[in-house]
Specification:
This protein has helices at 17-32, 39-48, 53-63. 57% of the residues lie in helices and 0% in strands. By secondary structure, the chain is mainly alpha-helical. The chain has one domain. The protein is globular and about 35 Å long.
Length: 65
């Protein structure tokens, strides 16, 4: 039986989609050693944290400036 490790994520601000996006990307990169994430997968992950598609897209635009 494979044991999984879980990490608790605490978002300091109510509107912290950009911080969450960077955390998700960094975690994904460290786990899979890939620097790309499908948009549909990213939207699904962000939705699990209560972030809407528009908030995710806005965060993406902020991180690439």
């Amino acid at each position: 039986m494979r044991r999984r490790n879980y990490m608790k994520v605490i978002l300091r601000k109510n509107d912290s989609a950009t911080s969450l996006l960077l955390f998700v990307y960094n975690s994904y990169f460290n786990f899979y050693q890939k620097d790309t994430i499908k948009l549909s997968s990213l939207l699904e992950i962000m939705k699990a944290f209560g972030k809407s598609e528009s908030a995710t897209r806005m965060s993406l635009s902020r991180t690439v400036k």
